[in-house]
Amino acid sequence: MLNFFHNSYIFILIEKLVNFINSIFFVLLLVALSFALVFSPPDYLQGDSVRIMYVHVPAAWISLASFSCIAIFSILNFIFKIKNLKLITKSIAPIGLMFTCIAIVTGSIWGKPTWGTFWAWDARITSMVIMALFYLFFIVIYKFFDDDKANKISSILAVIGLINIPIIKYSVEWWSTLHQPASIKITGTSTIHSSMLTPLMLMFFVLILYCALIFLMKYKTEIIKIKKKNLKRYDQ
Amino acid sequence: MISNLITMNGYGIFVWSSFVITILVCWLVYYKTKKTLKKYEKEFAKEIEELSVQQKKSVLRNSKIASKILASYNKTI
Lengths: 236, 77
Description:
The complex is a heterodimer. By secondary structure, chain A is mainly alpha-helical. Chain A contains seven helices and no strands. Chain B is rod-shaped and about 70 Å long. Classes of the chains: A mainly alpha, B mainly alpha. At the A-B interface, helix 1, helix 2, helix 3 and helix 7 of A face helix 2, helix 3 and helix 4 of B.
């Protein structure tokens, strides 16, 4: 069992996973894009602009999930001091930032035909911008401080940022906003038709695979960085 | 059919720009991540090559990762 957490075992596993994801990714992407852009029906009210949902919603889900993961792993790292958790959070943060930016930009583009404006400082959009800033600070900290100090500061930042997650989720219920309430609920009945839910889930699955691919490559890079540092001991 | 797919009943500019931006950003991040990984693999392999024969042997005996990276680096050159 302990062998599973060993870096060399993880490294070999990463190589196999990256190859597997690379082999199926483009076929799945083509299928998902065909469903999202061709086979799914237009909305009765929003028309074809609803197709923006197939990139906007998965991007927003991934950005929220990534930050939650970072915060949870940071708390676990505080308690158990597991080195790998630090590498995991460092590898997830850029992915989270990227998808937060995609969610904000595609949401803004979707806003023009539906709300009549690209931007409004409403609760959902503002709280998403705040999350993007949290991601940005989290990444920048590692550039300015040494690893141990950066680890402590970024962990505190992630825990503070965690407060923003329920604010983002419930902003559409707590305040009067332009953003529509959630159509898909984990508990309770979803108000989206299966003809739209299928492409949405397909796109979500493809983007999750993409995240896994980037995460694995970033994690592998972090392992090599550690090995490089260790190699310097042989030089001395 | 094709013109309908492009114009999307007047929403084409919004829909296509959203998809193009997403795919472009994803591709750029993938490219940069892969490039960084390759750069570190190359640097690491070079550093191993620069070690003395005994040090190199010791590193390769103790680290599966080092031997794997060195093997893949030697394949590419």
